[in-house]
Amino acid sequence: DAGVTQSPTHLIKTRGQQVTLRCSPKSGHDTVSWYQQALGQGPQFIFQYYEEEERQRGNFPDRFSGHQFPNYSSELNVNALLLGDSALYLCASSLFRDRGRFGHGYTFGSGTRLTVV
Amino acid sequence: AQSVTQLDSQVPVFEEAPVELRCNYSSSVSVYLFWYVQYPNQGLQLLLKYLSGSTLVKGINGFEAEFNKSQTSFHLRKPSVHISDTAEYFCAVRNTNAGKSTFGDGTTLTVKP
Questions:
Q1: Chain A residues with CB inside 8 Å of B7's CB?
Q2: What is the DSSP letter of A43?
Q3: What is the mean pLDDT of each run of 10 residues along chain B (113 residues)?
Q4: Residue A24 pLDDT greater than 60, yes or no
Q5: In this complex, is the C-beta atom of A95 within 8 Å of any C-beta atom belonging to chain B?
Q6: Nearby residues of B49 by Cβ (< 8 Å), 6 or more positions away
């Protein structure tokens, strides 16, 4: 049973560069949400994708953008990297609707550890 | 807007002792409530969730939580902890009308022999 797969697991970038992180959702899930987890803090919501559209967005600048593909996989792009973007980036997949309710169960990937130097 | 407050940043406890991790939330609308566990260098794993119905929710690994609407709390409990329960625990709240989950800052549970 394939869970959520994220790649790469680690990467180091220089300030000002751009980065792309990738996520394959759990089989059967159609919604992907991205979270940023800084050291010692809880995950912060970046945005959510469903049907290839951004459905909701957290308090992150436009430097953060994303995409969802027809196979439900997703990418997170961050432009003009800052030192403060160093964090663990988590992808969470879910069902948009689950037995009549809006989807409520996240399955998380193990994350991508981004270090900006 | 929603918010989650985890009242204890660190909870040390001896093996086989009971433990309670406290979580209060604030929301103007109906919510779902969750507890997740995170082991070092891993993603979050769902422990349990409250959607509706019985206010006492049982989850994996012997954990349970009780939803208290009047006190807007969702405390996590385990009657007897093991060394392997040492991890970071996160409480989260989500609007029932879909959308994002809001997480607390986490509680580090350390189980000592």
A1: none
A2: -
A3: 93 98 92 92 90 91 94 96 97 83 95 96
A4: yes
A5: no
A6: A104, A105, B32, B33, B34, B35, B57, B59
